[in-house]
Amino acid sequence: MSAHYAVIGNPVLHSKSPLIHALFAQETAQNIVYDRVEAALDGFAACVQQLQQNGMVGANVTVPFKAQAFALADTLTDRARQAGAVNTLKFTSVGIEGDNTDGIGLVTDIRQNLDFELTQKRILILGAGGAARGVIQPLLASQPGMLVIANRSEQRAYALKQQFQPYGIVEACRYSQLAGMQFDLIINATSASLSDQLPPLPQGCFAPNSLAYDMMYGKGDTPFLSFALRQGAARCADGLGMLVEQAAAAFYFWRRVHPATAPVIAALRAMA
Ligand code: ATR
User: Fold this and answer.
1) What angle in degrees, to the nearest 10, is found between the helix axes of 240-255 and 262-271?
2) What are the tens digits of pLDDT across the range 176-202?
3) Model pTM score
4) Ligand 1: which of 191, 197, 222, 243 to mutate, most ligand atoms within 8 Å of CB?
């Protein structure tokens, strides 16, 4: 019998997760079925309970339910606890296990797919919401030279600095305070690209050979990536690789099998 999984979100219609997991399952000869489930905005916990009763064994969780999934899980992996959010659930006979694979997905994409070494690099994260919070600890674990969080609302950046200081060197600031600083990697973790906006990054922040990374995907060159190219970034990447890598880490969490990600990234790019 097939093991049954789904991605739960609202909206969820455009999620690429079913396709990604179908490709992983095919490639690794795992017998799984993977669906999309739209939960009511006030009905996430009830939806999860129903899916468990129907025999589902795991789920991915996407916007806007990652914090609710964190609260619902009976046990959490360290990385989920640090992220304060859960994107992967495993339903077992003793309860719900929650994991967060977003951060490891980003780091794997940058290091392995983009062949960009993070150790000793100067990293800037734009934004201090859930997307930023989910990736800070895995980035710090790669031992960058420094990690700065810039946000419009300075308070949110400081709150993240306080939380993650035990794991490495983290600074927090407003955008205007970045003037005169240079970074090897600038990651856009704001939601600005969703509305075709550009975070107010000062001129001159991209070091020679720098990488610009937008965690959004499917929007072509976002205003941030276009700005980065004009500002002399050597390379640009969108979040498609991160999407596939976070899915691969979730697949491993459930199945204990590592799927190859390069053919899946290539297949998704070919469809774009
Ligand atoms: P997510 O879970 O996607 O991170 P969020 O928690 O609502 O969503 O956070 C959105 C982030 O994008 C915040 O850091 C927000 O900045 P503020 O905290 O100052 O509001 C940032 N953001 C959204 N639109 C932006 C824009 N046009 N320019 C700069 N930052 C933006």
Assistant:
1) 140
2) 999 999 999 999 999 999 899 999 999
3) 0.96
4) 191
